[in-house]
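Render this sequence as a predicted structure.
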Amino acid sequence: MTVFTVQGVVFDLDDTLMPEREYVASGYAAVARRLTGELSTPAAELERQLWEIFDSQDRGRAYDALLALHGREDRDLITECVRTYREHTPTVRLSAAARDVLGHCLARGPVGIVTDGPEVMQAAKARALGLEAMGVHVVLSDALGGREAWKPSPRGMLEVLQRMGVSPEVAVYVGDNPTKDFLAARAAGMHSIRYRQRGQLHADSEPAPGAQPDAEISSLTDLPSVLQWATAKRL
């Protein structure tokens, strides 16, 4: 396994430090509570239906499909579902492994996060996880220019490195999405590590030529063994 000499580490958020399905479950619960009276259906049943849709080809239009199941077509209500999902206070937490690896890295150098997605949604996730309170530099790429700033754009990477005070050549990015994460890291001049584990939305996807990471791990607990820190422990 390649060992990377680093002065800082940058992480992706969804399906890297936090399981994406955990956030989806939180959001679907919020939407189901909003719709239970509207559709005269128990919230638990609406959640079950949403998960069936999530695991189908209709995932991208889940609320359209849900309302269709109930004989409804209401664009305003769909817009309200999207707003509820994005703006709810999520019930998510860092896994023990994620908390341990963040603590390990923070004790040795600066740590950052670059995450894509609507700003209000990603900010809510970061607050719920207490990332900034831990001392992590959190960059919401959406706040840097909307979708054009999302990965594979390197804009978020360069912004977080500036905040961390670390040069790209001595930083490594840890992510899960082979369609964009490692392209963004490479464009910023960073090394990259893919964290791949069963259950991730992109676990079965392979990167296109030129989009490969520099290394791959199957557990966050493996990360410290491939990092050689070039800075002394901070006081």
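Summary. Residues 20-35 form the longest helix (16 residues). The CA atoms of residues 86 and 121 lie 5 Å apart.
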